[in-house]
Amino acid sequence: MALMVPQVRFLPAPLLAALLALPGPTLAMDPDDPDYDPLEDDALWGETVSPDQTQTTSPELTFLLEEPDRTPHHHQNQIRITASSLEDGWADLRQCHNDVAAIRRMVIVYNEATIDELQVESTRNIESARAEGDRVDLRGVEKDAEVCVTARMKIVEHEGDGVYRLENGPFVRRFLDGYFPMRVTMAVSWGDLDLRLAETEPAEQDGFEVVTSDHGFMFDTLFEGELRTLVRLRNSH
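Given the sequence above, the corresponding structure tokens read:
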């Protein structure tokens, strides 16, 4: 079973009850449809966007080599792997979201099964932020807002023979049938553990930069469509 970085979703607080009742994401955008999913409906998120501002209508992943005119949402993750992470799968997470949409109230919801000890570390241009259980309640979100959280996250899976995998995604910014640019940065550190980066999917290429060291690695990418990543770490010996 793949273990995934819990991708958070922003939604107006009145939609939270509807979220919890849904079996899973769908492509329906008609609020009268029984399969309607408010998480997939950017029209409810408080952003003034329209389909003609999108770069593509395909979920196919496309890496971008230049910054778009509209500042993209930046999703930043710092993951720290310890010796116990290799045993139980739990790692330390610090996560920041930049250029959060300005809206009176939003809730960030995480996967309850893979998140623990969730706390708000810092905010900018946000009146108040409170972490409770598997969610963060934001109120008074203004332009150029940022929220950073810390947590324990279950992400490391042992495949055997000294190989560990971290599977993440999908990362996506969608409005109706269109896909908007998004930037994702992920830094994984393991200190003095005897590990090395074995492979990444996607592989390093133009638009998907990977930097490695003896103590960790980082990837940084700007893209449209849907991004899923798979990282394999291996014991050095």
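Confidence is low (pLDDT under 50) at residues 1-31, 34-52. Try to locate this feature in the token string yourself.
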